[in-house]
Amino acid sequence: MAASQFLYAPYLDTLSDRPFSRVPEDARVKQELCEVRVPPHAITELKRLIQTARLGPETFNTKYGLTGLWMKEAVQAWTDVSTFNWAKVQDYINSVPHFKSEVDYQGHSYTVHYVALFSKRSDAIPVVNIHGWPGCLEVLPLMNLLQEKYTPDTLPYHFIAPSMPGYTFSSGPPNNHDFSTLDTSRIFRILLHQLGFDDIPYIVVGGDIGSHVARALAVEDAACSAIHLNFCFDGNMHATRPATIGSILISDPIALLAGIGEKFAAWTNKTPTLNTILTFITVYWLTETFPRSIYRADFVSSDVVPSHGNPRWCIPDGKPFGFSAFSKEILPVPRAWIERTGKVTFWRKHKKGGRFAALEVPEVMLRDLEDFVAHATEARKPISKDDRK
C-alpha cells in the first residue's frame, strides 16, 4: 500500500473549518487538506508480527547498544493497548493540519505530504522546517506550542514542515536512477512556489539531512531570504549499501525497533518516552519509510549534492544565517568550521538537547526560531548568546 494512501479527506467541509488550515490566497495549485487514517487491519498485522518475532539475547548494559531488557519491555508495550494506543497516537498526529500536493519534477510525479499552520495575517512570514533522519514527527511538539501561543489571526508565520520524498506519507524517490538531497530541495522549491512563496520571501530551517536540503534552497532560490540550521556535518549514512539494510529492517518490526530505537536512545540528551519512540517506529513501519528514505542516499558523495564543506554551497553574503548548537548533538562542529560555510549572523549555544532538538526541547527550539525570524526580518545586529540554563 502506498504511504500516501494513509492520507484521507473524508470530511472536507469539517476539515476546512479547523484552525490554521486556510491555505494562503496566493497559492497557485490546490493543496488537499487531509488526515492520517490507518486501517485497523494494518495495526492488527503489525501486532501479529511483533508477537511472533524472536528477541535477541540478554545484555547487561548499553555499551554495545540497546539492552535485552529494554527491547523486551518495548515489545510488550508495543502490543499492549493500555501502554501504546494507536488510536490516541493517530489523534496526536492529527493535532496539526495535514496536507498533500502533487509536484511534477523531471518527468516524475511526487505526492508531497506536509503539516502546516497557516496564518490569516497578510504579513505572515513563511517558515519552512525540514526534518532529518530518522525523523518525521519531531516538529509536532513545537507546532503544538505555536497553536497554544497564537490564534490563526495572530500567528506571525506560515509554518510548513514537509516530509521528504520517501519519508512517511510522501511518495518515494524513483528507484531506477540517482536521487539526492538536491533533488529533494528542488521538489520542495516547486511546492513552496505552488503556495505562492516565490513572491513572499521565506525562511528555511533544517537539521541533520534536512540541513543539506535547507542549504540548497538558501543557495539556489532567491525567494529564500534566510536560513537557520542546527546541524553542519558531512558524512555518508547508510550510503554504501542502502538497499541491503533497507531489506533487513523492512522484513521485521523488531529489527526496525532495534535499528531506530537505538538512535533515539543514543542521539538525545534524555531518552524520549517509550511511547514517543514507538510512535516514530510505527509510522516508519506502516509507511515503509526506512528502505524508501535511504535507497538512493548518497547524501554528500557528489559534487552536485549540497555538502556543507563544498564552497559551491556556501551561504550567500547578505543572507542571514543562524545556527543553534545543542550540546548532545553526536556530530558537533566548532563555530569556526560553520563560519567557513557562510557568515553566521545569529548564534545560540545550549547545554541541553541533541539530534532531535525540536522533540527534546521544543520550547528552546521555538525561542531560537522566533528570535532568528525577528533577527532576519528586522536586519538586527549579529546576535551571540549562550544559553546556560
Describe, in plain words, how this protein is organized in 3D.
Belongs to the peptidase S33 family. Residues 34-136 form the Epoxide hydrolase N-terminal domain. The chain has 389 residues and is of the alpha/beta class. The protein contains 14 helices and eleven strands. The protein has one domain: Rossmann fold (3-Layer(aba) Sandwich). The protein has an eleven-stranded mixed sheet, with helices on both faces. Helix 6 packs across helix 7 and helix 9 packs across helix 10. The longest helix has 17 residues, at 362-378. The radius of gyration is 20 Å and the shape is globular.
Average predicted local confidence, pLDDT: 84
- Which CATH class applies here? Alpha Beta
Q: What structural class do helix, strand and pairing data support?
A: alpha/beta
Low-confidence stretches: 237-241, 297-301
Rg over CA atoms, rounded to whole Å, is 20 Å
The largest sheet, given as strand count, sense and whether it forms a barrel, is: 11 strands, mixed
Share in β-strands: 15-25%
Gross morphology is globular
Share of helix, binned: 25-40%
Query: Which architecture does the CATH hierarchy give at level 2?
Result: 3-Layer(aba) Sandwich
By DSSP, the count of extended strands is: 11
Question: How many domains, in number, for the residues?
Answer: 1
Read across the widest sheet, the strand sequence of neighbours is: 1-2-3-4-6-5-7-8-9-10-11
The CATH homologous superfamily is called Alpha/Beta hydrolase fold, catalytic domain
How many angstroms separate the termini?
46 Å
InterPro entries: AB_hydrolase_fold, Epoxide_hydro_N, Epoxide_hydrolase
Family: Belongs to the peptidase S33 family.
Pfam families: EHN (PF06441)
Keywords: Hydrolase
